[in-house]
Amino acid sequence: SQQGEEDPQALSIQEGENATMNCSYKTSINNLQWYRQNSGRGLVHLILIRSNEREKHSGRLRVTLDTSKKSSSLLITASRAADTASYFCATDEGFNKFYFGSGTKLNVKP
Amino acid sequence: DADVTQTPRNRITKTGKRIMLECSQTKGHDRMYWYRQDPGLGLRLIYYSFDVKDINKGEISDGYSVSRQAQAKFSLSLESAIPNQTALYFCATSVVAGDGYNEQFFGPGTRLTVL
Question: Looking at the partner chain, which of A33, A42, A96 has a beta carbon nearest the beta carbon of B106?
């Protein structure tokens, strides 16, 4: 069964707004990663957060991790039409096997 | 990612046929993975390999087999294809960084349709 589950399943916003998507998981993890997928294409790694980290930034991306709640969030600030894609969280329990959630489909309207 | 290639990119086949999907990488990574993605769902792990002599089953290995011919090549076979194996298949590679953490690099995917 899948480890991570994203929420919401779909999100539609206007360009310039912030987009927040959440990921919940079931077991203890070593790290959690976020990936982006443009329609029908391969996934691209965005950011990795370790289990001992609480927040991480990369450009317009901010990721938080709350291991007590077994949840993570991805914030994209000042969204652009080019950010339109599906976003997946992936958890690694430490064995370098990754469990992907079902994804959040983000649509940024120009 | 051009460093991870998959062939074919699209394939239509019939129930009962044997199909092989191939993955090659020029990244020099030891670890390779095969996933399938169904519409509206995330990726599910089929098989993974941490080096040429190491092959492991993932969540959904039934009906699939793999071969790690070399560090750079990892093939996925469907012994007798069935319609519910219609999906998008992704190959991925990774290497463990010095601190023990790693990201995955994905190929462009193979769209397989089983009639």
Answer: A42
